[in-house]
Amino acid sequence: MKQAGSKNIFSFKYRLKRLKRDSNKWAIFTLLILFLIVLPIVSIGVKLFSGPGETWSHIVDNLLLDYLGNSLFLIFACGAIVLLFGVSTAWLVARYEFPLRKQMEWLLILPLAIPGYIVAYAYAGIFDYGGTLQLILEAVGLEFVRFDIMNKSGLAFVLGISLFPYVYVSSRAFFLNQANSLMEASEMLGVGPVKTFFKLMLPMARPAIVAGLILVLMEVLNDYGAAKYFGVNTFTTGIFRSWFSLEEPETAVYLSALLIVIVFTLILLEKFQRRKLRFNSNRDNNMRIYRKKVSPKNQLIIFLAVLLPVVLGFLLPVAQLIYWATLTYENVFNLSFLTISVQSFGIALLTAFVSVIIAVILIFFSKWSRLGFVKNIAKLGVLGYAIPGAVVAIGIMIPTIFIDRWLIDVMDYLFNVDLGLILTGTLVALIYAYVVRFLAVAYNPIESTALKVSNAIPDSSNMLGVGNLRTFFKIEFPLIRTGIASAFILVFIDVLKELPLTLILKPFHVNTLAVKAYEYASDEMVMEAAIPSLFIIVTVMLPVIFLNRLLIK
Amino acid sequence: MKKLIFLIALVAFSACKNDTNKNGSSSESEENVVNVYTHRHYAADQLLFKQFEETTRIKVNVINASADELIQKMTIEGAQSPADVLITVDAGRLTRAKDQNLLQPIESDVLNRIIAPHLKDSENYWFGLTKRARIIAYSKERVDSTDLSTYEDLASDKWKGKILIRSSENIYNQSLLASLIVHNGEKEATKWTEAMVKNMARSPKGNDRDQVKAVVGGEGDIAVVNTYYIGNMLNSTNPEEVKAAEAVGIFFPNQEGRGAHINVSGAGVARYAPNKENAIKFIEFLISKEAQEVFANSNYEYPVNPIVKPAPLLQQWGEFKEDSLTLSKLGEFNKKAVLTFDEAGWK
């Protein structure tokens, strides 16, 4: 290695030479995919150079402080809620035996299945004047005292309770994979379960917990529907306001950029903190899980602790939706819901599949590439999750239209035929957009499990002359499959309920359940939106239960 | 595991294949279709689209989204846009679409004859389909309707802490303020906005129906809402909503003067419409007597076709004087209105 530049290792020539030497196929492929993922974001980001629009100072003077205050409040309040519910349930489910544990395992994922704004509507409906709570209280002869949930704290609660499964899924994957030896060692040394949890497991699970937490925070910053309904102005409100109401995309881009800066500051802060405590994997990846049996009384306590978030995040809103559905099914329900369900299901499945493959490629190809900077920038692939769906959609349209126009010109020149738009307005563009938007959802859980796989095994495999790909399929894939399953489920759910991007990019004949729900909800027909929402939930349940059975025993 | 992946891929592809086949966008322009970008998501509309398909054999393809997003989409699509018709729920957005060169003027004797001049674009770029008035819903218990008079009066001290109105994010509020800017000038409108913020019973939240419910719940005394929401609430399948709507009275403001603020949902033909003839036929159909009756009776909007009567419920509220302001002004002053809201701290 030294002979190449023993004299001046910093010279440009040397660097170029090294670049050439280290550019293996993995690096090139990684860069190509990254380019495609980042392209739509850059298409919008270019606007940054034209400076903010003229209303920028108006926004800074009148609104920015409010946006910043509310967004930061939501980050911390939601963060606390999802950590509390997500980590505790993951730990209890992974480590203790209690009645209905298997059912709880997948029920805990389901709060994610209800679109955030629908949960907001459901809760507002429960606490409303003439709402479910009032009806119940009056039926039993109690006086109704209205509890106003439509404010900042209520929003934090609603978002937290519907998003905690991100943390649950990623930390559970970690706790399940954790070898028992650590636990046993800790217990043999006479450390109690509480101390073991806080002193040993929690710090070790940190990368996994944070991976889930970051997804939650990005989703929180991105929420539009629930915040709008509850009257809380956040950055995303501002992005929509300046882009659409004030017709200044440049200003919206500035706000988006600020949002991304916030998200990345959080990520970097966490990385910086974590650097001091680096835990590499435990070598024996023993998949056998040993669950503690505790006294019936404690089992009941554990059961109730796990049940609480399920009730708040899933059963309660679903009960409200079912109640609404009984009031409206005559007007709303028809057989087309079944075909729409199948369409939504197919699109979500395909997107989840593609996203997982791309996430794996980014993580592993960049690892196999010898170029240092490729490893560092692979993380850029998750940027799309920090940007509101509507903005991603516009970002996708800019390059796809550009390519389409170019194709039209070429075909017109060569063959004199009018090709029309072949990318824009098709499923290809839609799925491309989903992947850009949700790559982070696939990337984070896979990365956090991949981090734990020690390099020793694949390294020895490589040394024995087995190629990277084969090693991956034979050794690494089985070790990270819980991460992959989590990633798959999360992307699938996210696509099923995705709205703003779908509205802008969906082809004419494609309809999704989320779009159907929106058609009603956007026009204050909240009750009518209950049936399509319930269809989303049922559609999500199938793969969640199936994958949970198959992959996380 | 491999089997599983294969299975997933197979299901996914077969589920999507159906759509892509139907979806050859280039072949669509040769078929007899009309592509509609719409912000209206009512069940009545779907019914009408189906009727149109049956009578004309022209297939209606629909993209639903908010007007702002549809306008963005059309802008980026440019000359290749498949859109034939743009439908919005307020005149301001139609004016914006016209200003951004997304619509084209059309010649239609039918439309010109039927639609009153202030309900359409002066150069025939867009046409109103249905009217809605933004009115005051007041508590029958606590408010004497003789105390109510104008939108301007809502800013007076007697309503301190009593007004319920939704966020300034909402287009209907933006249009209301735009109309006040046009009628009273910027200065007065700014004062009005600031006074309104002080008079609010609570920080703006929820939708129009929620404002009505809050009146009934006692959080405030009067709510500013659109007529058809009250109509829909009175006919809701939820008995609680019916109860709430029955407890409020309806007041049309500014009857002594210029009339109550109205807005239209309307339609225009896209500039690059690949099926222009069908687009015109489509809009003409929506103005026809039979279609207007569906609009009037299923969504409680006021028809723009004068031979069609409003729904019986709306007739009960009586006839009212409507503000005859040229609606394209609402678009012109929309941005000004949004800025004024922000400066006054109207969330």
From TrEMBL, chain A:
Q: Name one GO biological process term.
A: transmembrane transport
Q: Choose one Gene Ontology CC annotation of this protein and give it.
A: plasma membrane
Originating organism: Gillisia limnaea (strain DSM 15749 / LMG 21470 / R-8282)
Domain of life (superkingdom): Bacteria
Residues in domain ABC transmembrane type-1?
68-270, 341-546
Which InterPro entries does this UniProt record tie to the protein?
Answer: MetI-like, MetI-like_sf
Give the main location.
membrane
The record's keywords, sorted A to Z, are: Cell inner membrane, Cell membrane, Membrane, Transmembrane, Transmembrane helix, Transport
- Residue spans crossing the bilayer: 26-50, 70-94, 106-126, 154-175, 196-218, 251-269, 300-325, 345-365, 377-401, 413-435, 479-496, 529-552
What is the protein name stated in its UniProt record?
A: ABC-type transporter, integral membrane subunit
Name the SUPFAM superfamilies for this protein: MetI-like
Where is it located? Cell inner membrane; Cell membrane
Which CDD domains would you find in this protein's record?
TM_PBP2 (cd06261)
Record's keyword annotation contains Transport: yes
How does the entry describe its membrane topology? Multi-pass membrane protein
| Cited Pfam families | BPD_transp_1
**Signal peptide as annotated in the record:** none
Q: Which lineage do the record's taxonomy fields give for this organism?
A: Bacteria, Pseudomonadati, Bacteroidota, Flavobacteriia, Flavobacteriales
**In which family does this protein belong, per the annotation?**
Belongs to the binding-protein-dependent transport system permease family.
From TrEMBL, chain B:
Matches recorded under CDD domains:
PBP2_FutA1_ilke
Q: Could you tell me the keywords of this UniProt record?
A: Iron, Metal-binding, Signal
Residues bound to Fe cation: H41, Y228, Y229
MF terms (GO), sorted A to Z = metal ion binding
Q: Which InterPro entries match?
A: Ferric-bd
The record's annotation in Pfam families points to:
SBP_bac_6
Task: State the PROSITE patterns in the record.
Answer: PROKAR_LIPOPROTEIN (PS51257)
Q: Which domain of life is it from?
A: Bacteria
- Per the record's keyword annotation, is Repressor included, yes or no? no
GO cellular component, alphabetical, reads: outer membrane-bounded periplasmic space
Report the family membership.
Belongs to the bacterial solute-binding protein 1 family.
Name of the protein in question: Extracellular solute-binding protein family 1
